[in-house]
Amino acid sequence: MCASVKYSSRGPALIPRMKTKHRIYYITLFSVVLLGLIATGMFQFWPHSIESSPEWTLDRRSVHDAPLVKLPVSSPIPERGDLSCRMHTCFDVYRCGYNPKNRIKVYIYPLQRFVDEVGVPISSTGLSREYNDLLSAISDSDFYTDDVTRACLFVPSIDVLNQNSLRIRETAQALAMLPRWDKGMNHLLFNMLPGGPPDYNTALDVPRDRALLAGGGFSTWTYRQGYDVSIPVYSPLSAEVDLPEKQPGPRRYFILSSQTAIHREYRTELERLKEENGEALLLLDKCSNLSQGMASARKRCYKGQVYDYPQILQESSFCVVLRGARLGQATLSDVLQAGCVPVIMADSYILPFSEVLDWKRASVVIPEEKLPEMYTILKSIPHRQVEEMQRQARWFWEAYFRSMKAIGLTTLQIINDRIYPYAARTYEEWNNPPVVKWSSVSNPLFLPLIPPRSPGFTAVVLTYDRVESLFRVITEISKVPSLAKLLVVWNNQNKSPPEESLWPKIAVPLRVVRTKENKLSNRFFPFDEIETEAVLAIDDDIIMLTSDELQFGYEVWREFPDRLVGYPGRLHLWDHEMGKWKYESEWTNEVSMVLTGAAFYHKYFNYLYTYKMPGDIKNWVDAHMNCEDIAMNFLVANITGKAPIKVTPRKKFKCPECTAIDGLSLDQTHMVERSECINKFASVFGTMPLKVVEHRADPVLYKDDFPEKLKSFPNIGSL
């Protein structure tokens, strides 16, 4: 009892003494920690204003609220501009660095008002609504950053869209004063109306050092290929008018000219064409009996009759776009919006976004000296092709022309593709409207986008009775490391194949299939003996290809398993005089077909050729004993929307031992019939699916001066 009482009496006495002694200390410590946590949270989650960008909307921030910057008379002036600039010489790609999204970062300089020493602004208009829209679009995009240290590209808030409103010297001085100017390195300027009277230069006259220029009136003399970006001249007039899309097809007028300020010689020639062709051509001009203003800008007249503009453009199949004082014309945008095919006559003009857009699909470009022949040239274009061009013209406007936002972001995407080429948009992504894309375009065979782990390829050799040549082909193909099986399609019903003992001894299985009828289409039959994904179709007289060439072709196919990958390249051309397609086998810079006399493809296409070929194409091929290779090119291009790939430089594929009697390709009527095939197939398919490309695939060290033992494919062969 005493012990317990003694313990109890000490406990209550000690606890009050401890609280009294440390109370202030604990309260103070707790308060400091709590305040620290609150401050940290506010710092992390409260909106920051440090390094933030200004709002790029005129409604929220007036130009008059921007800080005033005076330009001393002695301020430095940039160099006029280096015409030799290219991305690898005047652009610092290392500033862009690596990022997982493969997207450049763009910084917009804060808005400032630049004036000279007496207070006169460098621009008579300040910040235009169009440039404000452009900057707003960039600041709202994924390209934008407000961290200047992360920026790859810098866009000044100085509006140089319209050179007419600028003081050239003072604008150049303002550019040079930008904090990160560094002789214009990695800076982008937007200009749509370059030059001024009397010469109207085709590029911005403001000295700009090494800055990139997105210009709306480039000529071949001022455009720096792969560095500058040719952009359209924005048309605010057509943007304010809602033109519903009109279905492609014949229109009331065949040709329409709506420009009001064209050269007298051009108008005289157009009037002569009008006299010759009557109602097919409508020649409009400015309305002289209307008061000036927006109302008159939206009207065009012909002999006192008034037409609404740009609505009248939808009533014509073709619309003339002639050069004016400047090469770039806003009329082009109006015409595209109307779904009218532009007929562009402006020699040396660099068409907008021509780096990525295929203008042959949406326009007709005619030299100015050919203006008298315009009607005849346009009449030679098939109706179906005109409809496709009308559809493509409208889509170009919707995707790339319709707003300053579309123009600005397209420009940045083009620059982005240059800096990150491995993540760049494809030709199809730039040029194929979504409404006409096949669901299987990107991957028609449901194949992986990485090289498949395939057990090699099956070589299919079509033969009739050229036994000696056939045996040589078999011997050469057997040397290819990736050959898995060799299948001979014996197409001669009147003669048996050689005895088994006479065939070349090779390390892979050799099978011979006898056909019931002598048809060229037999080479594409889906034989059960074909077990690999890759098929090499090869003629029995192609004895000149080396094992290195064949192995390299197979490696390329593994990277592009939905393409035809082959060696003999050919081209289809439109013959304006004859008004039809023509087959071309001469050496050119372009390829639209690879012949299946030596080509790799996926075996899936054998099933499509045999069971899904449109119309009577298969019967046509078998009846004419020709063009099975062209038919396969049509089929693959139509399914995938992609061009073939030519590999290695070799162009000659003639059998040295074959005579004119033996060689089908040596028949005098061969070329004429091949052209007939192209026109026949285009008619059956209802379109021209073949795609033209200007490149081929070669091994990396093919032409390098290295020891042969360092090259993976040393024996590529000559032309």
Automatic annotation (TrEMBL):
Q: Boundaries of each Exostosin GT47 domain copy?
A: 101-381
- Give start-end ranges for the coiled-coil region(s): 256-283
Cite the entry's keywords alphabetically. Answer: Coiled coil, Disulfide bond, Endoplasmic reticulum, Glycoprotein, Glycosyltransferase, Golgi apparatus, Manganese, Membrane, Metal-binding, Signal-anchor, Transferase, Transmembrane, Transmembrane helix
Name the needed cofactors: Mn(2+)
Domain named Glycosyl transferase: which ranges?
457-702
Gene Ontology MF terms in the entry: glucuronosyl-N-acetylglucosaminyl-proteoglycan 4-alpha-N-acetylglucosaminyltransferase activity; glucuronosyltransferase activity; metal ion binding
GO terms for biological process, alphabetical: heparan sulfate proteoglycan biosynthetic process
TM region(s), chain numbering:
24-46
Q: What is its EC number?
A: 2.4.1.224
The annotated pathway is:
Protein modification; protein glycosylation
Top-level taxon: Eukaryota
User: Topology versus the membrane, per the UniProt entry?
Assistant: Single-pass type II membrane protein
Report if keyword tRNA-binding is assigned: no
**What protein does this entry describe?**
Exostosin-2
What organism is listed for this UniProt entry? Pygocentrus nattereri (Red-bellied piranha)
